[in-house]
Design a protein that fits this description.
mainly alpha; 11 helices; globular
């Protein structure tokens, strides 16, 4: 348990340290140059760029931390061990699950406290890099690899390990609109890691999920983003999409469960298969 707590502390600590390192000097410089006042738009632009840079560097540092202190070990041969068919089917399952989970969150009408920040990041090169590349790598290595993988290797039942890592993954987002979605999609990534023994399907699925969200925010206005699917399409098409995504999600899960090879045996000294 302490191992998991330490990892979460480091996960936040690196973000806080790099954010303070890059944002505070920028804000201080602006205040000094403008007699204690900062132009709102310019200040916000500088701050979001500094924040995105901090997230990229904290992500790189967290990956180094996980590898250097041997929370994860790489077995590079495993890159070719996940078949193309498995990858394609996994992606279809992830997309169907994304649609279903997103509609569930819309129906619950959960508040989104980080939308403005995410919207600004999607219009910043470093923000796009942070959302689409760094987040999938760091979060899959941490939550599926270092946490779920560790739990399974010390004898925790796979279902319990998947539920625990997904719950932590949801909670760390600290945003009501994201907690349920992250938990649900974490279950998908966790099960894929358990059955394939590789983080690659989860990383690719995570990349697709974040990229779609990033593209939506980049091409739409904030007002358009706030419009719910049911208001865009109408009730009947939305409920049809809800049913279709549920059937697709369940169908792909049952197919993968039946046709994927048996889950590998996880042992305490085993290298992390990525």
């Amino acid at each position: 348990m302490w191992r998991i707590v330490k990892l979460i502390i480091y996960f936040y600590l690196y973000q806080v340290l790099f954010t303070a390192l890059f944002t505070l000097p920028e804000i201080w410089t602006q205040l000094m140059n403008n007699g204690g006042h900062t132009d709102g738009f310019t200040g916000a632009k500088i701050t979001i760029t500094a924040t995105c840079l901090a997230l990229v560097l904290s992500g790189i540092t967290m990956i180094w931390h996980l590898i250097h202190f041997k929370y994860v070990k790489f077995n590079l041969k495993s890159f070719g061990e996940v078949s193309g068919k498995t990858m394609v089917l996994s992606i279809v399952w992830v997309v169907a699950s994304m649609m279903f989970a997103n509609l569930c969150c819309e129906f619950l009408n959960l508040p989104d406290y980080t939308q403005a920040t995410a919207y600004a990041m999607s219009r910043n090169v470093l923000g796009i890099l942070s959302i689409t590349i760094m987040a999938p790598l760091v979060e899959e290595l941490l939550f599926r690899g270092a946490i779920q993988g560790h739990l399974m290797r010390i004898g925790v039942k796979p279902l319990s390990a998947i539920l625990a890592s997904s719950a932590i993954f949801g909670v760390i987002h600290m945003n009501p609109a994201q907690i349920l979605f992250a938990f649900a999609i974490g279950l998908i990534f966790g099960w894929l890691y358990y059955r394939t023994g590789s983080l690659v399907p989860g990383i690719v699925g995570h990349f697709i999920n974040n990229s779609i969200a990033c593209i939506q925010m980049a091409v739409m206005t904030q007002e358009e983003i706030n419009i719910k699917t049911i208001d865009w399409l109408g009730e009947a098409p939305t409920y049809a999409l809800f049913a279709f995504s549920f059937v697709g999600m369940l169908g792909m899960f049952l197919y993968l469960k039946k046709h994927l090879p048996a889950a590998p045996v996880y042992t305490e000294n085993q290298d992390l298969t990525i």
